[in-house]
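Researcher: I'd like a candidate sequence for this fold, 84 residues long. If you have to choose between options at a position, lean toward the conservative one.
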């Protein structure tokens, strides 16, 4: 992933296939908290007990730290992450 970040390759975090409204809202909330610079502890506080940050969420943290900006594509239900 680091080589892609170094080249400024865009990433997509898709929410397609998620059917439960609660799950979709939770994922939106996690992305929001990541881009607010919240700690893993603060993020986990909004999740059900015994939840761990998924690998995908950890990748989002790395993209945030690398300076990526996010926008949400309503049509494709995906976050588009780009490095300015």
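Model: Candidate sequence:
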């Amino acid at each position: 992933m680091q080589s892609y970040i170094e080249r400024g390759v865009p990433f997509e975090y898709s929410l397609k296939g998620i059917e439960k409204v609660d799950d979709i809202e939770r994922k939106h909330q996690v992305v929001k908290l990541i881009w607010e610079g919240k700690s893993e502890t603060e993020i986990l506080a909004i999740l059900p007990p015994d939840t761990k940050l998924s690998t995908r969420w950890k990748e989002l943290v790395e993209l945030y730290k690398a300076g990526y900006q996010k926008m949400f594509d309503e049509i494709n239900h995906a976050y588009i992450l780009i490095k300015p």
